[in-house]
Design goal:
It is built from 12 helices and 46 strands. With 822 residues, it is mainly beta. Strands 25-24-23-22-21-30-27-26 form an 8-stranded parallel beta sheet. Strand 26, helix 10 and strand 27 form a beta-alpha-beta unit. The N and C termini lie far apart (63 Å).
Length: 822
C-alpha cells in the first residue's frame, strides 16, 4: 500500500510539473562577485561577506588584466601572466512553483581545478581546464528563497601549461530548469548513414533522463531548413528514429548549409521537453591514396593550428572575437582548424559549422607523462575516461568536426622502462579493463602499456562515435612509436618530420596520412632581416635559452625552428603529394606563451601567419596566392630605408605569368616563378620614391601594387572593422590605429605611444600591437604603435546609442571615430 501511494504521488508530481514550459535554459553570466584569494581562504559558505568583491560578468579571465613579468612561471621560457586562486559567487532565486523541476548548472569550461558549492554544499570538482560539465543542483536548491553558488578556481600551481591558459570561469555558464523526465545533456546523436545528392537518411538517437517503466514515452523529431521551414518529420516510441530527406542541401566548405532537428519529448500524452540540435548533411572519407574526400570530391585540407586565446582579450570567450579570427583565416583561403591542444569552446565549433571549416577536435596534450611540472598528467589516470567521453558526447553532432585527436606529441611515444612498465593492477586500473591483462606479456615488453593505452582511448571514442576517424599528432616517427604499433589510429598524423612523409605509404599501407602540424616558421610582422636568401634556424634546441640583440624574427620566410621548415617548403610538399590529406600549419595566429625562439624578454610566440593583434604578416598573402582562386599580388617590405641600403623585394602572386617591378617609373626587371618557386624577388639599392609591381598573364595586366617612401608621421588614423555593433553587452569593434604623413600615407616604421579614451555606453576591452616583447597589460587603454600599427577593441553595453573613441599622442594630431550601437 505504501509503495502504491508513493508511485501515485510520483506520477502526480511528474504530470503536474509538465504544465509549464518544457525547458528553460538561461545564460547565467551576469552579476557575479569575484575576488583573488590566498590559499587558505574558504569562501564556499553562504554567510561569506562578499560586499567588497568585484562585480563582473562572465566569461572572465583574471590573468589578462596583469602586466607581463619574468617572475610569473606560468609558461616555459621566462615571463608571463600570473595565475593564483580566484573565487566567484552568485546569489539567485528559483520560484516556489518550480519545486518539481530539475535544476542544473552547465559550465562550458573553467581553468582550472575548479570546485563548485551550492548553499555551502560541494557538488563536485573538475581538474581539467578545458572540459564542459554539468552539476545537478536540485537536491540543494531552496525554492522561493535565495541560493548561493560559489566556485573556487585554483590556478596557483605553475607552470601547468606550455601556452597561455588564462584563469577563471572563462567560458559561458547556463542554468537549466527541466521537467523530471527530459532529454539528457548532449542527449541527441545525429548521424547520416546514407548521403547522396538525391537522398539522405538521418538517424537520431536520443538519451532520456528520469524515464522509467511507468512513463509512456514518444519522441517527435522535426527537421527544418535554414529558414525554419519544415522539411520532414518522424515520431515513435523508440529512442532511435530515422527520417529521409529528399534532395538534401549538402554541407560543404563553400556552402556550409545547416539544418536543425527539433526534438519534442512526449510523456503520458503531454509534451514535457524540447531540444534543438544543429546538423549538416555530408559524406566524407579519408583515403590512403587520395587524401580527404568530401561529398565525393577530393579536397585538400588547408588548415591551421590555433590556441584558444583571443589576443588582448585573453581567453574569455567572445563569439565576435572568435568569428573575427575565422573571418581573417577564411579570407586567406584557410579551410581547416586544429583545436590545439585541448577541447575548444562550443562557440568555436558553432562558427566552424556555419563558416565551413574542417576541424580536428583534440582531447589531450599529455597523458601520464608530464610536460610541465603541474600539468594534467597528474590527473590523467583518474579523469581521462570521463573527460574524453564528455568531449565526444558534446561535439559529435558538429558537421565541421571530421576527426578526433586523442593526443599531441605525448611522451608515451618513446619507450621508457621506468615509467612504461606497470604492474597488472596498475594496468587494469589505468585502462579500466574488465578482462585480465597478461602480466607476463606486459612485463616482458611483448604487450606495451602505451600501445594498450592508445587502443583504450581510441576504443572510448569509437564506442561513442563510430562515424569519425581517430588520429594523433605524433612527433616520434620511428617504427618504435607505440601509438603506431597499437594500430589504433585510423589516420597517421605527423607533426613535422617532413623527410619521413615519402615513406608513409609503404610503412602504413592502406592508412590515410595527414600533416597534423607543419612549418613552425618564425616571423615578426614588419621586421625584415637581409639578405633574404640567408636562412636563420633558431633556436639550437627548444629547451635551450636563445637571445639576440633584438628579439624579433624576419618576415621573409627565412627563419624557422630546427624541427620545422619554411612556409614555402611545406606548401610545395603538400601540393605535389596526392596521398597527403592536407596540413594544419603551426600556427594561424600568434599566441601567448612558448616564446620560441627567444626566451624572456619575449613573452609570446612568433609562429603565426597573423600576429597577436590580428594583423596579417606578409606570408599571409603567400597562402592567399596558393589557397584562393582570386587574383593576388603582394610586394614587400616597406620602402622606408636609409640611403645606400641594399633591399630585397619579394612578390607573392598567382594567376599570372610574370611580375615586373618599377622604381620611380624605371623597370628593374621582369621575374617569373621557375619550377616549384612560390615567389619572385629583386635585390636593389634603396632610392626614395615609388616601387610599382605589375603582374601579367599572356601579356595582359592583371594587378598593380605600389609602395611608397613615407614622410614623418603627423596624425592618427582609426579604422574599424565594423562601424555598427549590437547593444548586447558583448559585441566588439576592432579598430586599427595607424599614423599618417602630411600626404595621407600610412607610415610603416613608427612606434608612437597612443592613449585611448571613450565617450558613450561602452568600454575599451583591450589594446595590442603584435609585439611579442611588450610587457604592458593588454587591458590598458594605451599602446605603442609597432611597425606602424596598433589595435584598440571597443565593447558595447546594453544601451543603444553611439560610442566615440579618441586616440591621442604627444607628437601627433589626435584621431576620432564613432561607433553606432544598435
Amino acid at each position: 500500500m505504501k509503495y502504491l501511494f508513493w508511485t501515485l504521488f510520483f506520477i502526480f508530481l511528474s504530470v503536474s510539473s509538465f504544465a509549464g514550459e518544457p525547458r528553460s535554459t538561461i545564460l547565467f553570466t551576469e552579476n557575479w562577485q569575484f575576488t583573488l584569494s590566498d590559499n587558505f581562504a574558504d569562501n564556499s559558505k553562504t554567510n561569506v561577506d562578499d560586499s567588497g568583491w568585484r562585480t563582473l560578468d562572465l566569461p572572465h579571465d583574471w590573468s589578462i588584466e596583469a602586466d607581463f613579468s619574468e617572475k610569473n612561471p606560468s609558461t616555459p621560457g621566462g615571463g608571463a601572466l600570473p595565475g593564483g586562486i580566484g573565487w566567484y559567487r552568485k546569489i539567485f532565486m528559483v520560484e516556489k512553483n518550480k519545486s518539481a523541476k530539475k535544476i542544473y548548472i552547465d559550465f562550458d569550461g573553467i581553468y582550472w581545478n575548479s570546485e563548485v558549492w551550492i548553499n555551502g554544499v560541494s557538488v563536485g570538482k573538475r581538474p581539467n581546464g578545458y572540459i564542459s560539465f554539468r552539476y545537478d543542483l536540485t537536491p540543494y536548491i531552496q525554492f522561493g528563497e535565495k541560493n548561493v553558488i560559489a566556485v573556487k578556481v585554483d590556478n596557483s600551481q605553475q607552470p601547468n601549461s606550455r601556452w597561455y591558459s588564462g584563469s577563471g570561469i572563462y567560458r559561458n555558464v547556463y542554468l537549466v530548469q527541466a521537467n523530471p523526465v527530459h532529454i539528457d545533456l548532449w542527449g541527441t546523436y545525429i548521424t547520416t548513414p546514407e548521403v547522396s545528392k538525391d537522398k539522405a537518411v538521418i538517424k537520431i538517437q536520443t538519451t532520456i533522463n528520469g524515464a522509467n517503466n511507468i512513463h509512456k514515452i514518444c519522441l517527435h523529431h522535426v527537421l527544418v531548413n535554414d529558414k525554419g521551414k519544415e522539411i520532414t518529420k518522424v515520431s515513435g516510441e523508440g529512442l532511435t528514429q530515422e527520417m529521409i530527406v529528399n534532395k538534401p542541401v549538402l554541407w560543404s566548405i563553400e556552402n556550409p548549409y545547416l539544418y536543425k532537428v527539433i526534438t519534442s519529448l512526449e510523456v503520458n500524452g503531454k509534451i514535457v521537453d524540447k531540444y534543438e540540435t544543429t546538423t549538416g548533411i555530408r559524406s566524407f572519407s579519408f583515403d590512403a591514396e587520395k587524401g580527404f574526400i568530401l561529398n565525393g570530391e577530393q579536397v585538400k585540407i588547408n588548415g591551421v593550428c590555433n590556441h584558444h586565446d583571443l589576443g588582448c582579450l585573453g581567453v574569455a570567450v567572445n563569439t565576435r572575437a572568435i568569428e573575427r579570427q575565422l573571418e581573417i583565416l577564411k579570407a586567406m583561403g584557410c579551410n581547416g582548424i586544429r583545436c590545439t591542444h585541448n577541447p575548444p569552446a562550443p562557440e568555436l565549433l558553432d562558427l566552424c559549422d556555419r563558416m565551413g571549416f574542417i576541424v580536428m577536435d583534440e582531447a589531450f596534450d599529455m597523458w601520464r607523462k608530464r610536460k610541465s611540472t603541474y600539468d594534467y598528467s597528474q590527473y590523467f589516470s583518474e579523469w581521462y575516461e570521463k573527460d574524453l567521453t564528455d568531449l565526444i558526447l558534446r561535439d559529435r553532432n558538429h558537421p565541421s568536426v571530421f576527426m578526433w585527436s586523442i593526443g599531441n606529441e605525448v611522451l608515451e611515444q618513446w619507450t621508457d622502462a621506468k615509467t612504461d612498465t606497470l604492474s597488472l593492477q596498475e594496468a587494469n586500473f589505468l585502462l579500466n579493463k574488465q578482462k585480465d591483462i597478461d602480466e607476463q606479456a606486459l612485463t616482458s615488453g611483448q604487450l606495451h602499456i602505451n600501445a594498450l593505452l592508445t587502443q583504450r582511448l581510441a576504443d572510448i571514442v569509437k564506442e561513442i562515435d563510430p562515424t569519425r576517424p581517430v588520429t594523433a599528432g605524433c612527433n616520434e616517427t620511428r617504427p618504435s612509436n607505440h601509438l603506431f604499433l597499437s594500430g589504433a589510429l585510423d589516420i597517421i598524423g605527423f607533426n613535422y618530420h617532413t623527410k619521413d612523409y615519402a615513406s608513409v605509404p609503404k610503412r602504413f599501407p592502406g592508412k590515410p596520412f595527414l600533416g597534423a602540424e607543419t612549418v613552425s616558421a618564425l616571423m615578426t610582422r614588419g621586421y625584415y632581416q637581409m639578405p633574404s636568401d640567408s636562412m636563420f634556424i633558431w633556436p639550437e634546441r627548444w629547451d635551450k635559452p636563445f637571445f639576440q640583440p633584438i628579439n624579433q624574427c624576419s618576415s621573409y620566410d627565412n627563419c624557422h625552428v630546427p624541427w620545422g621548415n619554411t612556409h614555402e617548403e611545406s606548401l610545395k610538399l603538400i601540393k605535389k603529394n596526392n596521398f597527403i590529406a592536407g596540413q594544419y600549419v603551426w600556427t594561424g595566429f600568434d599566441y601567448m606563451g612558448e616564446p620560441t625562439p627567444f626566451w624572456w624578454p619575449s613573452r609570446s610566440s612568433y609562429f603565426g601567419i597573423i600576429d597577436l593583434a590580428g594583423f596579417p604578416k606578409d606570408v599571409y598573402y603567400l597562402y592567399q596566392s596558393e589557397w584562393m582562386n582570386q587574383n593576388v599580388l603582394h610586394i614587400f617590405p616597406h620602402w622606408n630605408w636609409k640611403k645606400g641600403d641594399i633591399v630585397d623585394i619579394w612578390a607573392y602572386y598567382n594567376n599570372a605569368d610574370e611580375v615586373e617591378l618599377f622604381l620611380n617609373g624605371k623597370s628593374v626587371g621582369i621575374k617569373k616563378k621557375i619550377g616549384e618557386e612560390l615567389h619572385v624577388s629583386w635585390r636593389i639599392p634603396f632610392e626614395s620614391g615609388v616601387l610599382k609591381a605589375v603582374s601579367r598573364k599572356s601579356g595582359k595586366e592583371i594587378l598593380t601594387r605600389e609602395i611608397k617612401t613615407r614622410g614623418e608621421p603627423v596624425r592618427i588614423l582609426l579604422t574599424a572593422d565594423r562601424s555598427t555593433i549590437s547593444a548586447n553587452g558583448k559585441d566588439l569593434s576592432f579598430i586599427t590605429v595607424e599614423a599618417l604623413d602630411k600626404d595621407g600615407n600610412k607610415v610603416p616604421v613608427v612606434d608612437n605611444l597612443i592613449h585611448f579614451s571613450i565617450e558613450g555606453d561602452g568600454k575599451i576591452a583591450g589594446t595590442d600591437n603584435g609585439d611579442p616583447t611588450n610587457h604592458n597589460s593588454l587591458s590598458k587603454p594605451e599602446r605603442n604603435l609597432f611597425n606602424g600599427k596598433c589595435l584598440v577593441v571597443v565593447q558595447s553595453s546594453k544601451k543603444v546609442g553611439k560610442i566615440k573613441i579618441k586616440a591621442e599622442s604627444k607628437e601627433l594630431t589626435s584621431g576620432e571615430l564613432e561607433i553606432k550601437v544598435r
